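Support request, please re-run this one:
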Amino acid sequence: MNYSVRKGALHATSVILAAGVATFAAAVAITASGPALAASHDYRFEVAQVASAGSGKSDVTARLVRTVDGTLVTHADLSANAATDTMAERAGYRRFRVETATAGPQTLEVSAKVPGPIRIERTFNSSIKATLERKVRGKDRVVAGTIIFYAQ
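Re-run finished. Output below.
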């Protein structure tokens, strides 16, 4: 086999290998970035209480729960764009003051920032012969939805 033929085959192999590595890196980058919005079927907003807050105003207390098991998401930060005043209540609940023009069913668009999962990273430091731990929180996710309540 000629030296130039071997060199050409080696070059072709390295080009194919580099293309494969680049494709793999792109796939990992796309997968690792993940969606910024959580799937709407993973969570649901619920009305916990509706109370009158004067003429044309209602206090709506909302919460966010997981649809899989119905558990309350206690560390979510709820917000609503049409609410004039909000107040955090017990963990996982938020009260919104909403101006309502008429009595009857009303729709309120709400969103929540759900904290990402916590993972523990452990590293062994050989100079001090100890395992060090730290907690790393994943990216926060945003959940959006609507709730329907009856104005008081």
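DSSP finds one helix and nine strands in the chain. Confidence is low (pLDDT under 50) at residues 17-38.
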